[in-house]
C-alpha cells in the first residue's frame, strides 16, 4: 500500500494558504487518484491538524510490510521406556541377608504391568521442551499421568522448525512443582531422566524411542538385631539431602534444612528380625556429601542406640546398605557395616565403620 501526497503552503500574516493538494492512493488491487486544486486560507491551528493527518497516513502505510515468521508446526512422537538394565528397587521393609524378594503387585489389579517397565514403576511423566538458544524458560511443559492416559509412555507434540532440548522425567511422587527449571517433590520416588537435542525441519514426522535412566540411589539401614517391646521409634536425620532436581542441567540441589524419616513400631512388629529402613535420594552435586544421624528411642523418649555417619555418598542406580544393631541398648563399642550393592544385586563390599 502506497500513498503519495503533494502540497504547497504559503504563510503570511499569521495565515496559512494552501494552494495545491494532490493525493494518489495506490494498492495492488485498486488505484484511486484524488486531485484537489484550491486556494484556501487556514489558521495555524487548522494547519497543524492537517499536518498531523498527513504524517499519520504516511506512517500507517509503510512501503514494506514486516515479514511474518513461519508458524507451521511439525508432528513429533516419543515412545518413553526404561533402560533394559533397570530393575525395580525392593519395596519391602525388611528381608534376610542375601535373600531379595520379587517385586510385589496389588492383589486387586485386573492387569499388572510387566516388571521393569515404565508403567510398573512410575505413574507420572514430566515433558519439558526448551529452545536451544533459550534454556532459562521452558518453551513447552506437560504433565502426563498413568491414570489419565491409555497409552501412557507415548508423547505426541507439534513443534515449529528449530533446535530444541527435550527433557523427560518419570516418577511417582503425588505432588511436584516446577520453578526456575527445578522440580521439587513431596517425596523422592524411583525417578528416571533423559535429555536429548532435537532438530525440527520441514521433513517427515519424527518418531523416536527414548530410554530413560535411573537418577536416584537407595540408602538402607539394616538391623542385625530384632525388634523388642521396649523400642518405640527409629529415626533417620539427613543433612544435605537433595530435594530439588534441575531438569535442564540434570543436577540435584541439597536442602538447607535437615530432612527426617521416622518409623514407628506397633505391637505386631515385636520379634521381627532383619528389619530394614530405606529411602531414595537424588545424587548430591559433585564434591558434596550428606551426613546422617540415626537413633532409636523407647516409649519414654529415652535414647536406646544412635550412630553418626559423617559422610553418606549415594550412587546412581545403586543401593548403599548400612548394617548393624539398631534397637538394642548400647552396651559396648559395636561396629556398623557398610554394604554398597548394585541394583542387579551383584557382589557385596563390606566396610566396617566405628561408632
Assign an overall shape: elongated
CATH level 1 class label of the largest domain:
Mainly Beta
Ranges with pLDDT <50 over ≥5 residues? 1-12, 15-40, 60-68, 90-110, 343-354
Number of contiguous helices: 2
- Order of strands across the main sheet: 7-6-9-12-13-5-8
Beta-strand portion reads: over 45%
N-to-C span: 86 Å
Give a quick set of tags describing it.
Fimbrillin-A associated anchor protein Mfa1 and Mfa2, 355 residues, Immunoglobulin-like, disordered C terminus, five-stranded mixed sheet, elongated, seven-stranded mixed sheet
List the helices and strands and how they pair.
Elements: E1 2-12, E2 15-26, E3 31-36, E4 40-42, H1 44-59, E5 73-82, H2 118-121, E6 124-131, E7 140-145, E8 154-160, E9 162-171, E10 176-179, E11 182-185, E12 192-200, E13 206-214, E14 216-223, E15 231-239, E16 242-246, E17 252-254, E18 259-264, E19 276-282, E20 290-298, E21 303-312, E22 318-324, E23 336-342, E24 351-353
Parallel strand pairs: 5-13, 14-22
Antiparallel strand pairs: 1-2, 2-3, 2-4, 5-8, 6-7, 6-9, 9-12, 10-11, 11-16, 12-13, 14-19, 15-18, 15-20, 16-17, 20-21, 22-23, 23-24
Protein name: Fimbrillin-A associated anchor protein Mfa1 and Mfa2
Organism: Parabacteroides chartae
